[in-house]
């Protein structure tokens, strides 16, 4: 039985420090396909990157728009239930900037027009779009698959959802 396995009873080294020719015809080793990583665009966000709103930014002359989110107007003012007033549009922009600043992004990217790209990114294992929607500072796009995350943010009254007008009309 041990004789059926490759290298069973053989004194040939498995790993070498010299190149070894692989004979695909004569060797019956299992071929495992390589991993396919859809997040092929990888780059670090520089401190000079400029966030326009909670869902887009510019770096090195290229505008990046985050897929699956709808950002509020950067000048939007929110009125919370307790009567407090917040600049939630500016907070949305600041949250995006703090989330991505000096971070290494792994993205899927699609060109829209010259110097503008739509991106779906992650930082480590966390999708940026999901993090933004969970924070309540942006809304989930209609077909983004983030409805449950948005409902949770709304229930917690996070970000934009502190504004009763946003929760009732669901248009912020």
UniProtKB/TrEMBL annotation:
It comes from the Bacteria. This is TNase-like domain-containing protein. SUPFAM superfamilies: Staphylococcal nuclease. It comes from Ciceribacter selenitireducens ATCC BAA-1503.
